[in-house]
Amino acid sequence: MAARVLQHCVRSLARPSLRLTSGNLAVRAAAVPAAAIHRPLSFAADSRRTRWLGQSQIPSVGVLCRQYGDLPPLTIESIKDRVMYVLKLYDKINPEKLQTTSHFMKDLGLDSLDQVEIIMAMEDEFGFEIPDAEAEKLMSPDEIVQYIADKKDVYE
Amino acid sequence: MFSSHCQCVIVELSDMAVTRLPHAALSLKQFLQRQKILGIYRNMLRTIRQVPDEGDRKYLRDWARDEFKRNKNATDQDAIRMMVTQANNHLEELQKSLALARS
Lengths: 156, 103
Known about the structure:
The complex is a heterodimer of chains A (156) and B (103). With 156 residues, chain A is mainly alpha-helical. Helices cover 59% and strands 0% of the residues of chain A. Chain B has helices at residues 2-13, 28-49, 54-70, 77-102. In chain B, helix 2 runs antiparallel to helix 3 (54-70). The relative contact order of chain B is 0.13.
């Protein structure tokens, strides 16, 4: 009874190792315990090898390593593109006049309420809060990009 | 003559509340008041973000924007203080309704 359970365990262990190490018969045979009971098992495992190698590798890899999800890494270019995109969507800004160096108040003729709205839109876009003291100093798209790169540790 | 003097004073005082002019043109009290008002506007927008329905959110954002812009050029100190108190009350009301809706 115990022997049968052990056979089953070794079989299930041997299966992923068969898929990952597509070579070494000697290694596989060595991995299997050298008891007399398990010798026929190793032959059976080898004969199943050809069938198993045909199957997809994904389940076994999933058992042996972890996968995490995350956003794609930010670059200064991507931050700049997103900032300019959000600004172009803002109805009070004329898209033709918008440059990365244009000052909100002096060049684009916005007032401080509009600037607050713009910074809120940036917070929504990038998903993190910008405190009041620092938000009121950001007066051009360039400064916003610099600030976000600062906060998100994006270097070039 | 008196009326023209009044007008000069009013023109000077119109650099108040929300403005495009550089900060050096404001006195310290006006500057602090301006910062407070911008802070209220920001808190209002942050609270409005939490409203569940998108249509309601847009309506509230437009309402807040109109209210603040309409009174942008107010000059009377008393009126300004009253409006600031009103804005705070609105904000509190909104926050309480949201808390109730969430529970």
